[in-house]
Amino acid sequence: MEQVILDKKDVLLFLKDSLTNLKTSSVHVDNAKYHHNTSYNCALSIVKNGILSLDALNKKGIINYSNELLELLNDTESHINGKDGVSLSVVGLSDVKCDEIEYDPFIDSQVDFLISSDVVARRSSINYANEFITNEHINPEKLKSIDFRLIKYIDSLFDKTIDDDTIESLIQRYNCIRDVAIMLKEEKLSIPIREMSDEDNSALDIDKTANSPVLLLK
């Protein structure tokens, strides 16, 4: 496994150049009504296991919550999807009022999974006007695209003083993208990974991404 060890001062430019060089053709995604956001660290689990409720995650041993905590989280007044639901969002709804808050799935700090429109979900506007809850186990086959906006985040950091934790987090995110590409190949899943900082549907070359070196900080 090839490794590249980077100086702190070189990380931003190296990551941006590497991601740009991994881009291939534009890939448009159809039949993908729903969005589900998660951290980079959780993306690999979703590719392998799908998107699961808290209860399902606990039963599979992916998380380790006590029954007491699960019941506490099952209070939908404080945790809208409870222990058995998964929160999704939909953009472009025509009936959202000007005083209502919409969830933005295009934030550059998280991974944005596009989900098949075939998923059955009910609308829940308690927290966000565009939030939906599903009780389905969203299998990996229902993932239509894995979108991230890491270049946009990197661009926001140029000419700023950034600490070591932020640099380390950037490297981890890049390595997570590489690991996702490897998992897609291993599971034989035809799901595009897209770098959507410019909202231009730019997909990454899965083979080149999976074969790219692991990055380490000097």
From the helix content, strand content and strand pairing, which structural class follows?
alpha+beta
Q: Numbering strands along the chain, what is their spatial order in the largest sheet?
A: 2-10-9-8-5-3
Order of helices and strands: EHEEHHHEEEEEHHEEHE
Number of helices: 7
Overall mean pLDDT: 93
| Helical content class | 25-40%
Number of separate strands: 11
Which regions have little confidence, pLDDT < 50, spanning 5+ residues?
Answer: none
How would you summarize what this structure contains?
By secondary structure, this protein is an alpha+beta fold.
Topology record:
Blueprint: E1 3-6, H1 11-22, E2 23-26, E3 34-38, H2 40-49, H3 54-59, H4 67-73, E4 86-89, E5 111-115, E6 122-123, E7 131-134, E8 143-148, H5 150-157, H6 164-186, E9 193-195, E10 202-204, H7 206-210, E11 214-217
Parallel strand pairs: 1-11, 8-9
Antiparallel strand pairs: 2-10, 3-5, 4-7, 5-8, 6-7, 9-10
Helix pairs in contact: 1-5, 1-6, 2-6
Q: Which structural traits does this protein have?
A:
alpha+beta; three-stranded antiparallel beta sheet; 11 strands; 218 residues
Describe this entry's structure for a reader.
The chain is of the alpha+beta class. Helix content is 33%, strand content 20%. It has a six-stranded mixed β-sheet with strand order 2-10-9-8-5-3. It has a three-stranded antiparallel β-sheet with strand order 4-7-6, with no helix packed on it. A two-stranded parallel sheet has the order 1-11. Helix 1 (11-22) packs antiparallel against helix 5 (150-157), helix 1 packs parallel to helix 6 (164-186) and helix 2 (40-49) runs parallel beside helix 6. The longest helix is centred in the last third of the chain and has 23 residues, at 164-186.
